[in-house]
């Protein structure tokens, strides 16, 4: 054993060598921009192309000026509310749809045919998102949804069914369409990763559950989800990163919404920095707030997913056992 | 006995309903996707859309179907030189970006999995933290850095950072955790292979499914990335396709490569999944 350890130690330098490129590039292109963004948040840095930040208290302003500017502006709070609303309202149905589809597509008893085509079409919106084809796709989806809402309206006008136009008001808004489009673009990613996660689980476990007479719901909640925990963590992180950093879909509905119904934190930051105002300092402060939100949300996710409670318990037990063994050795 | 048979048939019925529901939902989603795709092809090759102004500020949209197929000259008119320059730049940036991303992410994941080094756990934690904080947060810092170092109109700033993509590293690490076996590496060492060679010739091919999955995501992300380029690339010769001056053909060129790549790699993803379940 000690021999093996020695061999492993001799090779351990390769661990450092192989991770150096990542580390260096990470420092330059990720860490440095974030650090400088933090710095700019306390500086005076306005006008297009200005590259000379001055610390705020040197200019004669309080050091928290940028944050103050943000927190007193109404649009920031609108953006804040919108972001979380969009995030939750699009992620929850998206997960339900994607996981349901993934479970159905991988179910061995159902044996769905044409899975390759379905997989492609689920992933297709993301594949072409950002291109003109993606744009025409979105227009199509919006028009389909809009038409069906229109149909419901017509039906309710002809014969109530208990539906009044007032009931449909919440789904006639931009918010609703942002949610629909986000869901439509994003469920393919969740679907693919969910399929990867589910098929990574050994088939024997499912067989055993089947023999024991577990229903599909039981199998899903008690076997599939716990077994694909790392993948679940990955999917959650992607959802959070894309959801809170949502920018292109809301802005697709136009920057001209005076009620700021489609303003998110990311678009707020971008507007501050690059569209019109060129207030890099205020944008930096906004990104700092965004960063804090990311850290809080990710911290919650990390604690719920990656900290393995059972393992911690096991470690504790082992330690106690070792202690008891030592004590008994001492005593005997 | 008859009870047992009864439950069996009931279950079968339930299964059939579930199957039908799944098919209906999937087919609806497929139609939702395929119709606009065909419409767009029609737009490019077939009918012509005319917006005709009417009286009192109204307008009507008329579709004029073209007779026969598009002619070669008309097809050529869809593109201009800027389109091709943009396409070339886009291909260079995206392909290099994806290759660097995949290769170095796999390398980093391998470094974390295969070797025992002191800072390993800390490094892994760093990757997880970095994964949860996207680079878009630091857009201001990135653009200021580009200004200060005079890197505007340089394409390599969209290629090199791909080496450090925590998301891909985490995914590769997850895959390696499940499939990696130390025995292969040790037997290769006994045969006298160097560490680099072991990675390139043994580990990298093993990771094929993970690579295929991530290649698509990286390619799409890089291919449609236009936010920072729009700000820092002003030279026509350096413009990438999403921001190059729009000719109708540019839209077509922009849409096609991701689809082709997916069609090439989709088999790999499917295969990889079944491979992954055999192992473990």
Give me a quick take on this structure.
Chain A is mainly α. Helices cover 76% and strands 1% of the residues of chain A. The model of chain A has no long low-confidence stretch (mean pLDDT 80).
Describe the secondary-structure layout.
The complex is a heterodimer of chains A (332) and B (280).
Chain A: H1 2-40, E1 43-44, E2 54-55, H2 56-59, H3 65-72, H4 74-106, H5 115-128, H6 132-158, H7 174-199, H8 203-211, H9 216-227, H10 229-244, H11 248-252, H12 265-274, H13 280-305, H14 309-331
Antiparallel strand pairs in A: 1-2
Helix pairs in contact in A: 1-13, 3-13, 4-7, 4-10, 4-12, 5-6, 5-7, 6-7, 7-10, 10-13, 12-13
Chain B: H1 2-45, E1 48-53, E2 59-64, H2 72-77, H3 81-114, H4 120-132, H5 139-148, H6 166-179, H7 182-190, H8 195-206, H9 208-223, H10 227-232, H11 248-278
Antiparallel strand pairs in B: 1-2
Helix pairs in contact in B: 3-6, 3-9, 4-6, 6-9, 7-8, 9-11
How many beta strands in the DSSP annotation of chain B? 2
Oligomer: heterodimer
Strand order of the largest sheet of chain A: 1-2
Q: Which value, in Å, is the CA radius of gyration of chain A? A: 26 Å
Q: Roughly what fraction of the amino acids of chain A lie in strands? A: under 5%
Unreliable stretches covering 5 or more consecutive residues of chain A: none
Shape of chain A: globular
**Largest sheet data of chain A:** 2 strands, antiparallel
Q: Using CB atoms under 8 Å apart, which protein chain pair has the greatest interface?
A: A-B, 95 and 94 residues
Order of helices and strands of chain A: HEEHHHHHHHHHHHHH
CATH domain class name of the largest domain in chain B: Mainly Alpha
In the CATH hierarchy, the architecture of chain A is Orthogonal Bundle
Unreliable stretches covering 5 or more consecutive residues of chain B: 272-280
What CATH architecture label of the largest domain in chain B applies?
Answer: Orthogonal Bundle
Strand order of the largest sheet of chain B: 1-2
Shape of chain B: flat
Number of helices of chain B: 11
The ordered H/E elements of chain B are HEEHHHHHHHHHH
Mean pLDDT of chain A: 80
Q: What's the number of structural domains of chain A? A: 1
